[in-house]
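Anyone opening a protein record will find just a pair of labelled lines. A complete record is shown below as an example:
=====
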Amino acid sequence: MDHSARTFTASAASARVVDVLVPVALDRAYSYRVPRGMELKPGDLVCVPLGPREVVAVVWVENANPDPRLHNRLKDIGEKLDVPPLKEELRTLVDWVANYTLSARGMVLRMCLRMGEHLGPERQRMGVRLVGAVPARMTPARRRLIEVLSDGLFCSTASRARARPKFISRLSRKPFAGLSSR
């Protein structure tokens, strides 16, 4: 056996791995490598890379037997958040609600993590407002949208106006309606 392969396998096996549940529409936890010097236990809130972004997630369980074929594909946990950990009872409730309602555990966890400012800045939402004079040429779709927007409130969904998103996108370039952020 090659000595370099043996030391590489030994160092990969010595790395601590935990399963982390992310608050997205998934029913399984992902395995992440714990950086040296970071102390984690089940229930701790952490930031982990998920695709091109970082998300807040929960350490769900210690992974004592990680798949040795994936050791080079594991990502490191970014940071441990300075908030109280989720108790065992709440993690058990998340599992129970997900099983009972046939929902993804990540979505049930997402409801539990709604803590406002502790989870970072709110995502910016785009929508349409009525900003100018009503157009001379009125189609049924334009009429419905103008009726919805005439109250001056922010309209973020096409379903409220019973219009396709592409129609609203094209309409937002007209002088009487404009995109704005909430």
